[in-house]
Amino acid sequence: MSGKNFRRTELGGKPLHPSTQMTAYGYDPALSEGAVKPPVFLTSTFVFETAEQGADFFDVVAGRKPAPEGMGAGGLVYSRFNHPNTEIVEDRLAIYDKAEKALLTSSGMAAISAVALAHLRPGDALVHYTPLYGGTETLFGKVLSGWGVKPIPFTDGASEAALLYALEKAARHGPVKMVYLETPANPTNALTDIKLIRETVDHWAMTSGQKPIIVCDNTMMGPVFQRPIEFGADICVYSLTKYVGGHSDLVAGGITGSAEMLQPIRQARSAYGFQLDPHSSWMLARSMETLSLRMERAAESGRKVAQWLAQNDMIPYDIMHPEFTNDPKQRDIYDSQCTGPGSTFSFVVEDNRDLAFRILNGMTLFKLAVSLGGTESLVCHPASTTHSGVPIEARKMAGVTEGLIRLSVGLEHPDDLIRDLEQAFKSATQGGPHATAAE
Ligand SMILES: Cc1ncc(COP(=O)(O)O)c(C=O)c1O
Fold it and tell me: Candidates 218, 236, 241, 249: which one to mutate for ligand 1, based on the most atoms within 8 Å of Cβ?
């Protein structure tokens, strides 16, 4: 039985669906006493059969020699480099994202940092969409810039001219090595047209002689509703802490792309020590079995909540949900690039922290916490939390106002969540300056 079925990709001449693959791919029960589920391999190091084998495995893990066909990253050596629990999830994430390879890391920020450390050098320039998750803005604007990497933002992900302007501006500072996207963006849900970015970068490469790689943060919709590699991204990064982990009980990151793109990142992960531990990796494999179920159900509930927000005249000025946008360009990108809306989106009230805080403090089912993508619904105020480290002008430019409230809709019944919002809106406006708006 060993090795027979655990890398099966098709049945009866038809490719297997990712939801089927998530229960089995990459794990051979015969290697673990027939256990249906993989054990947690709590070991820091692995025994070589011979000294020659040890030398051989080290050559592969150090990148001096390619891994033998069908052997993933080569033989097991030491758990900072590779271990069975991480390799099972890497194989499954690559399948879901339609990528050649995947890597796990100890957090989403470790994934982004490993990509940056492998592909950027002091003196390089980096062009990035803004807004990004606040931690990524801080990494680019404060940490990498301290290492001599120049970040240049652009704010319209549907405009060739906006990207070209940023590329030309960046090129005045140094070689442009990376274009970094996050789509949908956290917390505005603005979509970037990945295909347009690919075409623009390729076109610019012909005149400038520079070929920046395109990296896309796919945390908010991927891998179920969006696969940026199919649209021309070179590398995807993930906070697997969110939907893929899906239960708000672990912190992890992931990277997908071609073997060639990921090779230097694998080296950086080993050198800096960004590997994910066996227990969290095991929990991710467990979570991936229900990933499409959870994301589809949460997206359906999110759609109902957004619909209610869009129809009620109590408070919101704007609903930043891809199916309720008034911008036809954004709608076109959504229709061509995504197969569902996800379940994290924001709504905007008057640019007034007191009003926003009254709404947040009135919620009883939505828990007041940062993060997203778990089974439980969460609400947060990005301007005072996740994006508080972003300079105020940059926040304003990106539309992250004091009146922006982000929801992550989980698996509770949507009618209960709507009731929670309704009573929070009522209590926030009773007796206050907005009372008439609510009546
Ligand atoms: C879009 C996005 N990317 C990256 C990260 C960072 O992930 P982690 O907290 O797992 O390091 C987050 C965290 O909220 C996020 O929302």
Answer: 241
